[in-house]
């Protein structure tokens, strides 16, 4: 293996990056459109964010079966099966909006959870495709696809808004087209061969894996990071557009900027990890969360929303990539599917609770109290990371 091969990323990683850009558009579209369609169709105003929360609940519920499927038939075949499934769900969502059926629309976004579960496996597939020293770079690069997804989702939502008789029904037809293009890219993906030795073939029970301090640092960083981000992000379109009267275009811009900020730092996070180390990068992510809350609490002008949501995205990126890079230190290659399943189930199960409760909290207690609720969780995670860093040192 020459030096060029050792430092360059393989074809699999680039294929997954392009596919992530297309498929992850489902997330930015549902975040942007879900609350708006919900506000029009929901029988009660505090159910407006239920379509957004439903995709998170669907993700948590479908992580175990999606991971099991990939373990049994391989990642490549699983990607195609879930791709076809996602196209059908997109048509169902379009029909639900056309029929003004709120609960069917929520069910369709719930079904998109399997699509999101599949995309979340891209980061593991990329890390399995590279040598150990390239793991942070591979994980970061795949997440770069989210930059394009941040624009694609809301843009095709607006482009397809008036494509059919009912607003936003055509948006999901266009989303189905993105899924088809992603499946074309994935034809070039090859199942990675796990780096496994004879001594690693025996799997440890989960309770033994749970005893590792690094496992809890990884899972708590990703879980709290995702929950705080989702709690604030889910409530933002309702707070901005419905309560504070900001325009739809301004609301779209804030959500797009937030999602770009979630993924753009991925271009340099491998370098940051090398220079600062994982623990310092994750602490920086928590500091970004605290500044985000302070700016959002200070006022409801467009600038406050925009800057705070950008910081929210950056904080999530540092915490999530840090946690993702740490996780492989907890398991052998033969244990990867079960540990990845537990990890993502906890992350997205908690995120589901955050998303589901965001709609209730924003109407019941308001934007400022909703922001303050996040502080104890941020401070608790700071203690966990600092204690781990001290023990490691």
Largest sheet: none
- Mean pLDDT equals 89
CATH top level assignment: Mainly Alpha
CATH architecture: Up-down Bundle
Shape: globular
Structural class: mainly alpha
Regions with little confidence, pLDDT below 50 for 5+ residues: 1-5
Question: CATH fold name, please?
Answer: Growth Hormone, Chain: A
The arrangement of helices and strands along the chain is HHHHHHHHHHHHHHHHH
> Would you count the extended β strands for me?
0
Distance between the termini: 34 Å
Kindly give the count of domains: 1
Protein name: MFS transporter
Pfam families: MFS_1 (PF07690)
Domain Major facilitator superfamily (MFS) profile: 214-393
InterPro entries: MFS, MFS_dom, MFS_trans_sf
Description:
With 393 residues, the protein is mainly alpha-helical. It has a single domain, classed as Growth Hormone, Chain: A. The protein is 79% helix and 0% strand. The protein has 17 helices and no strands. The chain has helices at residues 3-7, 11-23, 25-41, 50-73, 75-98, 102-128, 135-159, 169-186, 206-209, 213-243, 248-263, 269-276, 278-298, 302-326, 336-364, 367-372, 375-392. The two termini are 34 Å apart. Residues 1-5 have low confidence and may be disordered.
Tell me the layout of helices and strands:
Elements: H1 3-7, H2 11-23, H3 25-41, H4 50-73, H5 75-98, H6 102-128, H7 135-159, H8 169-186, H9 206-209, H10 213-243, H11 248-263, H12 269-276, H13 278-298, H14 302-326, H15 336-364, H16 367-372, H17 375-392
Helix pairs in contact: 2-6, 2-7, 2-8, 3-4, 3-6, 3-7, 3-10, 4-5, 4-6, 4-15, 5-6, 5-8, 6-7, 7-8, 7-11, 7-14, 10-11, 10-14, 10-15, 10-17, 11-14, 12-13, 13-14, 13-17
GO molecular function, one term: transmembrane transporter activity
Organism: Maribellus comscasis
Keywords: Membrane, Transmembrane, Transmembrane helix
């Amino acid at each position: 293996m020459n030096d060029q091969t050792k430092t360059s990323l393989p074809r699999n990683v680039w294929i997954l990056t392009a596919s992530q850009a297309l498929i992850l558009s489902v997330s930015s579209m549902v975040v942007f459109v879900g609350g708006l369609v919900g506000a029009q169709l929901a029988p009660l105003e505090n159910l407006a964010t239920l379509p957004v929360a439903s995709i998170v609940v669907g993700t948590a519920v479908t992580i175990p079966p999606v991971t099991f499927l990939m373990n049994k038939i391989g990642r490549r075949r699983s990607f195609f099966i879930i791709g076809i499934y996602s196209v059908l769900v997109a048509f169902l969502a379009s029909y639900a909006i056309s029929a003004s059926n709120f609960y069917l629309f929520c069910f369709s976004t719930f079904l998109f959870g399997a699509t999101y579960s599949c995309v979340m496996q891209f980061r593991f597939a990329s890390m399995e495709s590279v040598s150990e020293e390239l793991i942070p770079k591979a994980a970061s690069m795949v997440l770069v696809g989210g930059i394009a997804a941040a624009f694609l989702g809301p843009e095709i939502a607006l482009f397809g808004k008036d494509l059919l008789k009912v607003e936003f029904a055509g948006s999901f037809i266009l989303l189905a087209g993105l899924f088809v293009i992603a499946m074309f890219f994935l034809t070039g993906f090859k199942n990675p061969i796990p780096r496994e030795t004879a001594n690693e073939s025996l799997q440890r029970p989960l309770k033994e894996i749970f005893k590792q301090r690094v496992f809890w640092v990884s899972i708590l960083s990703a879980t709290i990071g995702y929950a705080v981000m989702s709690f604030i992000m889910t409530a933002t379109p309702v707070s901005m557009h419905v309560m504070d009267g900001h325009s739809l275009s301004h609301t779209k811009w804030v959500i797009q900027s937030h999602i770009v900020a979630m993924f753009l730092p991925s271009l340099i996070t491998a370098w940051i990890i090398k220079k600062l180390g994982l623990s310092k990068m994750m602490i920086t992510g928590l500091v970004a969360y605290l500044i985000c809350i302070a700016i959002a609490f200070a006022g409801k002008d467009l600038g406050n929303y925009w800057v705070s949501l950008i910081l929210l995205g950056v904080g999530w990126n540092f915490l999530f990539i840090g946690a993702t890079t740490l996780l492989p230190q907890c398991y052998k290659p033969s244990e990867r599917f079960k540990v990845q399943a537990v990890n993502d189930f906890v992350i997205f199960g908690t995120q589901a609770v955050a998303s589901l409760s965001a709609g209730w909290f924003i109407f019941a207690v308001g934007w400022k109290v909703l922001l303050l609720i996040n502080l104890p969780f941020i401070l608790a995670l700071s203690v966990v990371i600092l204690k781990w860093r001290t023990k490691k040192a």
